[in-house]
Amino acid sequence: MPSVRELIDRAEHCHREEALEVYNAFSGLQDKLDIVSIYKRYPELFSRETYDFVTALGEGDLPEERERRMTKWMFTRKYISNKFKELIEDLENAEAAAQVEVDGESHPYLSVVILIAREADYGRRGRLNEAYLAKMDELNPQREELDARGRELILSLGYTGTIDLCQQLAKLRIYPVRELTGAFLRDTDALFEERLERFAARTDTLTRESLRHADLPYLWRAGRFDSLFPVDDMVPALRRTLAGLGIDLEAQPNATLDLEARAKKRPRAFCIGIDTPRDVRLVLKPRGGQDDYSTLFHEAGHLEFGAHMSPSLSFLYRNQGDTSVHESYAFLLEHLLSDRVWWREVMHTEPVLSGGESYLDFTRFHRLFMFRRYSAKLHYEVEYDERGGGPPLAEAYARWLIRGCGVAYPRQRYLEDFDGGFYVVQYLQAWIWEVQLREHLRQQFGEAWFTKRSAGSLLKDMWAEGMKYDVWEVAARLGYPGLSLAPLTAELSG
Questions:
Q1: E strand map for 152-287
Q2: How does residue 494 score in pLDDT terms, banded at 50, 70 and 90?
Q3: What is the pTM of this model?
């Protein structure tokens, strides 16, 4: 048996190969994803013998409790993912190859949501969505097999479920965050209903009564704001923003922007560290409008965080920690688009249409929707795990999502809408902490903090620590007693 340090080193080498394979497949540079072949080259990382060895590690093996726990978390996930690597790969490739037939036309399954977002005709939006959900339903048996076998394996390892696993090894505060978000749902019900009606009406084709799940991508596409987001200024706007913080995007050989519109590139943008911080890549398939800007800035937050991590950090702290920290920096840059001062300083204009509608009002509503949606998802995912999962819980999904989003959600999405490992908690924590962090930057450096190199220096110091500390610890290191929902609630209620 290799030593634990040797295993961690091998895990890093495996990660580089796996990340490059994901990048090549999801960016459209190759037709299929092949993780299975990579895993076969590192059998020692995925064996039961290694799992047993790592879970028995003590203080004498790895003196630091944090490193010991993260090592156990990493190798537990490797052991589980290896058991189902073929199923996972088959599902990814099936989704990439699937076609959806609508009105005599064939469309790639993964691109249909984009078509729905850009479709102005109410009836055709509905038909596109119905066909998309029908194809999803065809793929659901693969998801259901993965889910059932995964839950069975977790139980066989001695955990009572995914909640127990994530609380013990990832230290996720699942129930405290659920309590916070439950209060948020109750406190914002009336506000959300009023804004849902108002912004549905602003599309000129929808009303509160006619609004369906099929219409949500179109609602968020918000094409009326396109004039504020010229395509040729998207990357320059990012460059100007980063320059204010003392970051020269062009002089970062370790940070790559992949914005080429390849035919097979996945529509969902992502940032991936091939060899963090030496090689970090942002992948986006531009399609125009405000969503491109917000997505680019979000992924750029991931990009800069990864590119500025200290190379001397353990692999664990660069790649295996609390991704709430990663997401909070992504939201920090993304939410600059909601900042009137940023518009004046960087875009040199006001984010207001000729008719008087403010883009800032729209972004607040969108964030309110998203936080409520993920709050509802968390309640559903807790119920799913507590009740043992399976197809009968599809009704619980539909019930919780209508509670959070105000429109009926299709039960077909009950597994597709999972991010795995209670990542929903990490999104929610990041949304909460980002507002507190942004307020901290304002207090320290002024309303235009993003134009101050000193603010950039503080962020770089924080980024250098990677994910060694979880988001609650990051808050404490800046003098906060913990995460508070009050600043986010106040901001979204404005």
A1: 255-258, 270-275, 279-283
A2: confident
A3: 0.95
